[in-house]
Design brief:
Blueprint lengths: L2 H27 L20 H4 L11 H18 L5 E7 L5 H13 L6 E7 L4 H13 L4 E4 L8 H9 L4 E4 L12 E4 L2 H19 L6 E7 L5 H14 L5 E8 L4 H15 E2 L5 E2 L3 E4 L2 H14 L10 E6 L2 H8 L5 E5 L5 H13 L8 E3 L2 E5 L6 E4 L2 E7 L2 H5 L4
Parallel strand pairs: 1-2, 1-3, 3-4, 4-5, 5-13, 6-7, 6-10, 10-11, 11-12, 14-16
Antiparallel strand pairs: 8-9, 12-14, 15-16
Helix pairs in contact: 1-3, 4-12, 5-6, 7-8, 9-10
């Protein structure tokens, strides 16, 4: 807000306070004649007498004094309400911009913490650089923001910076990724259940392959990992491997990091093609399953497969699984290119949840839950299986349709 506008609002508040005070004064004395100007004889009016002012002998307040104090307090409060409120300052250190999920999360945060909502958002994109993100958090602390939002690039290396925020009395909210430091150094975490997503992928794959394959031939599985050391990379693989160990024929034969980006996914797939593409048997790729730890990397992998002329997806060839559940990713599921996708049931409400938590603290309340999971959803282009029996209970597989896509914003 510029200085001229502030001065206009202050003047307006002062004028309104004066008008209310005049009316209140008249109401308190039973008179509205303020005796200003000339009387009917043309002489200047005398000053108000002591009965009319509400003061008795010696200048002490009379019986109307307390009532006038209350009115003056009410006028002051009303004037204060008209003054512009100081915005709540929020610093958001985002991991990067290499995936649809990150882009959607950033957009949601910018919408949730707009100036019109009473916030001032300071946003920094770390571009998948942990050091840059730590520096961003320390910059927010130096600038004395009211709150910090953090979607960490990796889990490790956060204790020192978050201790600094804690001692500066700046609450930190984690959005998506986790950190490996003591929980007292952050206020709350909001995010997907990455480990459950990995578990769902393993259960779905076993059921899917049980109908498609014959015999106990080894199942050759390759993975394109996200950023190594990040929560999605660690927990999705942990959930999948827990189930993986129950199937002796499954062989994890290769793993490459794609950094959660489309380009990274393409480069990783090109390495797999160099290593496992059998040109002597009609371009047969000696891999049965490709697990991409997010959809952006799956886009890059599919582009490399298309260029090499290798079949994949529902129509035959290699089975592709992915994660996140963004609108574009689910469009690939509907087309049968990605056969199963695991992610969030709702449209990236982390920013809204964080704003509600901040509003709770601003109103003097407390955050009741330290860990706040988003509901996990499972998407597929297949009729079977309809349900997955997971450690968290029964999960329904949703068949992706045009109607489902229409109702998702991101």
């Amino acid at each position: 807000m510029d200085e001229k506008r502030k001065m206009r609002l202050l003047c307006l508040a002062a004028c309104l306070a004066l008008v209310i005070a005049c009316i209140a004064w008249g109401a308190g004395t039973g008179k509205l004649d303020l005796k200003i100007g000339s009387n009917k004889n043309g002489s200047v009016n005398e000053p108000l007498n002591k009965e009319e002012t509400g003061f008795g002998a010696g200048g002490q307040k009379g019986e109307n004094g307390k009532e006038k104090d209350d009115l003056e307090d009410a006028v002051a409060r009303k004037a204060q309400e008209l003054l512009p409120k100081k915005p709540v300052t929020v610093g958001f250190a985002q991991a990067g911009h290499g995936s649809d999920w990150l882009l959607a999360q950033t957009k949601r945060c910018k919408e949730a913490f707009r100036d019109e909502n009473g916030y001032r958002l300071y946003f920094i994109d770390a571009d998948n650089d942990h050091k840059a993100q730590v520096d961003a958090v320390r910059g927010f602390i130096k600038d004395k923001v009211d709150y910090i939002l953090l979607n960490p690039v990796v889990e490790s290396g956060w204790t020192a910076a978050l201790k600094e925020a804690y001692h500066a009395k700046i609450p930190v909210f984690l959005l998506g990724g986790r950190v490996d430091c003591d929980g007292k150094y952050y206020e709350a975490w909001f995010g997907p259940d990455y480990e459950l997503e990995g578990e769902c992928a393993g259960i779905w794959l076993k059921s899917h392959l049980g109908r498609k394959r014959q015999g106990d031939a080894p199942l050759r599985i390759a993975v394109i990992f996200g950023t190594m050391g990040s929560s999605p990379q660690l927990l999705r693989m942990q959930g999948f491997l827990d189930y993986f160990g129950q199937n002796e024929s499954w062989r994890l034969i290769s793993g490459e990091s794609g950094g959660f980006t489309e380009r990274g996914g393409r480069l990783a797939m090109e390495k797999y093609l160099d290593a496992y593409l059998n040109l002597d048997s009609d371009k047969n790729l000696e891999l049965d399953v490709l697990i991409c730890q997010n959809e952006s990397m799956a886009y890059g992998a599919m582009a490399a497969l298309d260029e090499a002329g290798v079949a994949y997806g529902k129509e035959g060839g290699m089975t592709i699984l992915s994660f996140d559940g963004t609108k574009d990713g689910l469009d690939a599921v509907e087309q049968g290119k990605i056969q199963a996708d695991f992610g969030c049931a709702s449209d990236f409400d982390l920013a809204v949840l964080a704003r509600e938590a901040i509003e709770e603290l601003e109103s003097g309340g407390m955050i009741l839950k330290k860990e706040n999971y988003m509901e996990t959803a499972c998407f597929t282009c297949e009729e079977e299986p309809k349900y997955l029996f997971t450690s968290a209970g029964l999960k329904r597989m949703e068949i992706v349709t045009a109607e489902l896509l229409k109702n998702r914003e991101y």
